[in-house]
Amino acid sequence: MVAPGRDSSLQGHPKTGRIGLLLAVVSLLAVGAFAVPARTLVVGAGSSDSFGLPTLARQGLVVPMGNLPAPDGLQVGYPSVLYDHGVYKMWYFEVQASPWYAQIAYATSPDGRNWTKQGTVLSPTLPDETFDVAYPTVALVNGTYWMWYVGYDGSVYRIFAATSPDGMNWTKHGVVLDVGPAGSQDSASVGYPFVLCVNGTFDMWYTGLTSFSAPDNAAIMFATSADGLNWTKEGTVLTPGGSGSIDSYNVFTAGVVQDGSRFVMVYMGQDASTATRMLWAVSADGAHWEKAGVALSPDPPRERTVGQADPLILPDGTWMVYYAVRNYTSDIQVYLATGTPGNDTPPGPNPPAPTPPNPPPPSENVTAAPSVGFLAALVGWAPPVLVIALWTGIGAVVGGGLAVAVIRLRGRGRV
């Protein structure tokens, strides 16, 4: 898990030092030793059409980077979006260039397309997150906002929790999911959390790494909790495909939504050439998954990597998928794609991107975090602590964190 800007594949670049770590994490996440009996992975060979999934059409850039030296002047990514009483709300990581540093920011929108940045809302303050905080996934449960995010202490990525009455002022609860024992799939780091509250139970999909140095060692894992703080690991639920498949090298960052009686996942998959795509998977219970084809592939030269997706389903059946794009070496920004099942319009190129405006100053209730560590490219795990290196072409993007939506967006009922 590499924090934003901690991707090993980007370590040599002054703005992507931490991305290399993520790269290492993603490639290291080999299907590990955490498989759980009765949760055997089912791999499907069908296309997204045969699964009744939408063909996504790009809508372009929705949350751009700011201008240096702003807190978000280097990267913004890993969006987590809720629709709450007529307002779209997004939490995402932001990375500044000097010093490299990742924290979590907040934005709002009346229509899901035009966003206003509200400033930084969570910064590193705890001993186990002294370098970065990133990769948020947010749920609204019984009037309380819950956030799970990744913290990086300089050597290990862990998953933390925080709660808030308004989505802006947060109380931290510390580490809630730590690395596993030696030999397990998540023995090196855990990151890229995505949480849904289903029938009173919290379900988390996350990426586990076995090593920071070995290739192809990332896998998607599953955990459950009755209270959001105490988690039981259920094992590995999605692993790389066989030789020649589009995800033969790595799978990571899962964004999940309930679609009727099933779960749909948008995850990142790498093939042997290290090309990274957004891919579909479907499940009846959230634990047994069937791979369902390509959701979105990069559109060169403007998109080198796509991922970290957070899918929403609106009441009219429209899918809104927020995701992160790496265009060049260190830059990461948030884009939107939409679709409706049965709509076979091919995904076109992104519309011309506007010049990123200067971000508004943080609101008065936001306390600027001290510069900690060096955050290079939020493409991996930790704040971007979990940046798995898909951003370099081998880099990775984390799948976003939507969780439980307030208004009853299909697949995100009120709890």
The gist of it:
The protein has 415 residues and is mainly beta. It has 1 helix and 23 strands. The chain has a 4-stranded antiparallel β-sheet, with no helix packed on it.
Task: Report the uncertain regions.
Answer: 5-47, 344-348, 350-415
Sketch the major β-sheet.
Answer: 4 strands, antiparallel
Oligomer: single chain
* Overall form: globular
- Name the structural class: mainly beta
Q: Radius of gyration from the CA trace? A: 18 Å
Task: Please report which band the strand proportion falls in: under 5%, 5-15%, 15-25%, 25-35%, 35-45% or over 45%.
Answer: 35-45%
H/E series: EHEEEEEEEEEEEEEEEEEEEEEE
Could you give the distance between the termini? 31 Å
Commentary on this structure:
The chain is built from one helix and 23 strands. With about 425 residues, it is mainly β. A hairpin with a 6-residue loop joins β9 and β10 (about 170-175). It is globular.
